[in-house]
Design a protein that fits this description.
424 residues, alpha/beta, Aspartate Aminotransferase, domain 1, Aspartate Aminotransferase, domain 2, 2 domains, seven-stranded mixed beta sheet
């Protein structure tokens, strides 16, 4: 295979507005200066985990270097300072989602734990045999498996909204699945495997007409678009920090405060109690009733810095830039011989999944990596989607705010190299 490739250059149009200075933004991400196999790193795996800007790295370093301590219990200066920074991040996330109160923001280890928390705490209390939970065909495993576990435990019924050949969420079919036994609708806001933007406003409206609650998995939404939980009128919303340019090990469960306070604790331990005797324990209200033990303190601070970072750029600018990159990538990759895009929904976020005739996705990913291009390959924790489209795996290019059209060109060139390597 020919290992030579041209250096990535910022293409005309990549710096489209004064408000969105792509060169400045890319300079904020130290890892993008990296070379891989002698080539500039082209990082197109943001759907799995995004890179971290300098303000996030610096905020976490400052916490460790100057005021780190455990939170909430200490009276000394470092504990007070850590607690202030930790709770300030909760407030930043509340404003980011337009929550009605900071008390609606529960820190978790990620969206996976947040969904499991709702399944365990709300689901075990409120769902009985025969009650129905509605999910969609394009859910991440994290929004399938917890409900299957609850089905095995409680005898609930799981219903699945189909998608069409382009990956569109079929609202008419969804409407038919709703009924008097529907208690919860749990669907993705944006598909991690296809990029489909689900019409969540209609999903929520129809569910509420039937008296059902709605949980949205926002992992692939919050990096790309503004989310207002009050305007959506949703009941639960979850996301992971590491996809929003923040650290791993931290995520968010947003829930209506009345719902959270009516839910039993998810785990027992320190800091989630009001009082403990051997006869009885009483619990704090939300959010602390769901945050047993020492939390991910510095990770929460890093998430707050990530929220500050994307908020300062603004989602109008981010969305416009990413939409341009997505359009360009769709056109550019469609021109690659033998390449088929999986998922062409009417509304898409910045994700392109694809297969190339005669080349397994894992081989494809390995070869383009030698050109410095990082894409995700596999089933993307969405095996039902792969089965729906009759493929074992796809390659997925997922774009972030720092990606450019020149990087799309680098991917296309690497795919051409892969085709030549396999004689395609």
């Amino acid at each position: 295979m020919n290992q030579k490739a041209s250096a990535v250059q910022i293409a005309p149009g990549d710096n489209s507005t004064a408000a969105f200075d792509i060169k400045r933004i890319r300079a904020d991400f130290p890892i993008l200066k990296q070379k891989v196999y002698g080539h500039p790193l082209v990082y197109l795996d943001n759907g799995a985990s995004a890179q971290k800007p300098r303000p996030v790295i610096d905020a976490m370093s400052e916490a460790y270097e100057t005021y780190y301590s455990n939170v909430h219990r200490g009276v000394h200066w470092t504990s007070q300072r850590s607690t202030e920074a930790f709770e300030a991040s909760r407030g930043k996330v509340a404003r980011f989602l337009n929550a009605a109160s900071d008390n609606e923001i529960v820190f978790t280890r990620g969206a996976t734990e947040a969904i499991n928390l709702v399944a365990a705490a709300w689901g075990r209390k409120n769902l009985n045999a025969g009650d129905e939970v509605v999910i969609s065909h394009m859910e991440h495993h994290s929004n399938i498996v917890p409900w299957q576990m609850l089905r095995a435990e409680k005898g609930i019924v799981l219903k699945v909204v189909p998608i069409d050949d382009d990956g569109n969420f079929l609202v008419d079919e969804y409407r038919k699945l709703l009924g008097p036994k529907t208690k919860l609708v749990a669907v993705t806001h944006v598909s991690n495997a296809l990029g489909t933007v689900v019409p969540v406003e209609e999903v929520i409206r129809l569910a509420h007409q039937k008296g059902a609650l709605v949980l949205l998995d926002g992992c692939q939404a919050v990096p790309h678009m503004a989310v207002d939980v009050q305007a959506l009128n949703v009941d639960f919303y979850v996301f992971s920090g590491h996809k929003l340019y923040g650290p791993t090990g931290i995520g968010i469960l947003w829930g209506r405060e009345d719902l959270l306070n009516a839910m039993p604790p998810y785990q027992g331990g320190g800091d989630m109690i009001s009082s403990v005797t051997f006869e009885k324990t009483t619990f704090k209200k939300a959010p602390h009733r769901f945050e047993a033990g020492t939390p991910a303190i510095v990770e929460a601070i890093g998430l707050g810095a990530a929220v500050d970072y994307v908020s300062a750029i603004g989602f109008d600018a981010i969305s416009a830039h990413e939409h341009g990159v997505l359009q360009y990538a769709t056109e550019k990759l469609s021109a690659v011989k033998g390449l088929r895009i999986i998922g062409r929904a009417r509304e898409k976020a910045a994700i392109v999944s694809f297969v190339v005739d005669g080349i397994h996705a894992h081989d494809l990913g390995t070869i383009v990596d030698r050109a410095g291009v990082a894409v995700r390959v596999g089933h993307h924790c969405a095996q039902p989607v792969m089965e729906r489209f009759g493929v074992a795996a796809t390659a997925r290019a997922s774009f972030g705010l720092y990606n450019t059209r020149a990087e799309v060109d680098a991917l296309a060139d690497a795919l051409d190299e892969a085709r030549r390597f396999f004689g395609r």
